[in-house]
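fwd from M.: "can u put these together and see what the complex looks like"

so here's what she sent:
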Amino acid sequence: MTEYFEVHARDGAARLGELRLRDPVTTPTLADAVVVDGGSLWGTDRDLPEGSEAELTVLPHRAFPAGTDPTVQDSFAVDYPDVDYPSAGVVTAETAADYGCDAYVLSNAQGVAGHGASFRDELIAVREAVPADTALYLAGVATPRNVATLVAAGVDLVDTKRARVKGRQGRYLTPEGEYHLDELDELPGAHPRDPPLAEFTREDCVAHNVAALEAELRTVRTRIRRGRLRDYLEGQGRHENWLTASFREFDQEYRYLEQRTPVIRDTELSAASEDTLNRVEIQRFADRVTSRYRNRFSNPLVLVPCSARKPYSDSQSHAQFHRAIGYRGHVASMTSPIGVVPQELECTYPAQHYDAVVTGDWTEGEKDFVATVLERYLERNDYPRVIAHVPGEGYRDICERVADRVDTPFEFTAVDHPTTSASLSNLDAALSGELKYSKRERQHNTIRAIADYQFGPGAGDDLFPDLRTTSRHPKLQVRDGDDTQLAAQVPQYGVLAFTLAGARHWAASPAPTKRVEIDGFVPHGSVLAPGVTDADADVRVGDEVVVEGPAAFGVGRATMHGAEMRESTRGVAVEMRHVEATEDNA
Amino acid sequence: MSQPSPEVYERGRGMDAHNQVMREIRAQKEETYDPHEPTRVWLDEDNTPDGVYRSLTIILNTGGCRWARAGGCTMCGYVAESVEGGSVAHDALMDQIERCLEHERENADDPADLIKIYTSGSFLDEREVGAETRRAIAETFADRERIVVESLPDFIDREKLADFTDHGLATDVAVGLETATDRVRHDCVNKYFDFDDFVAATVEADAAGAGVKAYLLMKPPFLTEREAVEDMVESVRRCAEYCHTVSMNPCNVQRYTMVDDLYFEGGYRPPWLWSVAAVLERTADADAIVVSDPVGAGSDRGPHNCGDCDDQVQRAIKDFDLRQDPAVFDQVSCDCEATWETVLDAETSFAMPLTR
């Protein structure tokens, strides 16, 4: 059971946590001052340390360095006793398990840090074998340059050992490089306390390296708080190849990252490199649009280019398209890196949260991604025809590729630029004779489309066979025949939030639900992990969840993924929105 | 004395695991060797209880160590130098001796006074070197002053040693004790005998009028730099109570060994030459000759410092070997000494090696 560590916030696999010592410590951080080594059992037998609440005690261990054969690890592995003070066990992917410690130390970090694929495999194996609410400590490997990558993979504790040794060797470390003092003409990224180069000793180099590591950890913690560590890594990781390799390798392990990536958040997502295409948020949106969402309009599809302003409908260009279309076509925006955004989902995370670098030039990777999404979209959704109102270059190229592969006929209406009067009048003419859809149809289809996206294929119809909407996009309210409010569209994220009546309606409907079961109490405010008795494995941070127990029924938003709720003994699992007692004595 | 043998001691989970893994590693080696050629032979100078002698060192190819064939020591790649089939006949072994004598005749003006014979196993194990061969070799070198033969403690007995002492040869048995700490010898080195067996072997040698030279291994796998240094200081002191010479040798990374696997994956670094110097300096007052011959010094796979000072420190060690004067180490210094000190302080077994 974890008693001395708690995760407070998550950003993908990275966590902002707290080592709950006598003087609590915010992680990710340097462990030097708080870790005490109970010693190696390779050379001698040892008594169990007395331990203290003031420090994290590494229990006596037989550490297996990188390259230790699994057979040897298996026969020499030690068991860690239960202790009542903050403790850490030394493990590798081979030996990692729940030993009841608050933290785990990876003993072969020297071997895996530096190799993207081995680092990924080892980290995922260990992280998945130990409870989610335990800290992971990688000793002797952190540098200012690699620490963001270590943390992004799920590491909570690092130390200054490597930085100090490098300093003694006259190697000057920065978040972008490693320089030998003899080769420097000036000190890049010098800290205020660094003396000038002419007086700079190796002692100073040690101090500089430690300060640089501390500074980088402050950057990393800030990025986690803002939910923007990945954006940082896509840039900073470029300074060393294994770091870039590492986040690419992790992107290949979609399952691990997807489980840890929130489904909604109020954070800008910067699309500045082709690696952004592989982010969970992007892949998940594309996947849900092409496997869950269903078009309910019978009008032609009008493909338009995205706009820098979000949501798209707020932009000047889209206002012009809108005037020409006049509700006679179903609008979907084509964009890199999101793919295809149907009009109902233009507020849905991350459609209104990303900011892409726009030069007008598309890479082959971007074209291929968007074309694949569009093709899958058209395979799933029937349209009488597609009006591609897109500029030349990438957009047109993509549409032409897809037109060759699908049966739906394409016509192109833009000349030069889609906002020229000639183009807009072509668009208007192409839609002549099409019937307008009503505001009611538009609003109902929006709610159902969001439900599909959020809960699963068919969920819109399963949840809301009949519905009434009040208020206006993007703050629509969903009501039943008795005018009872069931849900509301959340404008910041473009998802639905249920009322208590709505949650009951959801739970009783054939639509897939995500459930968290709790002990016999009535949670007000939040559900803590120890109160969770079970949780669906597919629950993600940000998901709408039904919370149910012997004494209560309610609805809230998950702040942990499902497995984490089940494994954890500390931390907030669900932020409750509505709850009611279901027992008289509750 | 008790007679531990590889067979009865091959038990216990850790040893089973080490042996299984080492067998698999060794099986990757396919080369075989000509049984009529010695593995290696060279001329050198050695410090002995009777002063510094010119020496002829012979690595006899006997088919190798039986313990190694069971799996064996985690750092030892010498079994790879064995011959196919596992044993070498008397005539072939005598051919090897003749080759060594030729080498000596071609490269030295006079015969060496000290002969050292190693087999990468046990010269006194009659399954490696039969009694007939042992006696013939003793006869061959009867006119020299001193002889050293290598053996595990279990094969040391006074009758075998009498073959040499009867010729008036000052005889020493070189025993690969590796460390005085049983737990390290068992779990890190994977050697099956105990320090008590070594002590018993020194008693047996003494009864034949022979001496024992202990060979220690600095930094087997799984120990940090500081643990390795402390293990050696302690081991030198304990050995000095039982033998006149201690050869304290830093581990090097030999192919087809567990150490090589660790090294390849980034989990092992041979010791620093500063560590060797520190042990020699700290044990200079021990009542024994303490020497060290760092094989592969200065290379990545051998004991090394930063690359700039390796030759200098190695020379100081050689100087110490002959003169036993710790002042030789006052003459060497380098910036990397501070790095080594940081490693000693900061390296834990869950954070090693801290630097290559």
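replying to her w this: Chain A has 18 helices and 29 strands.
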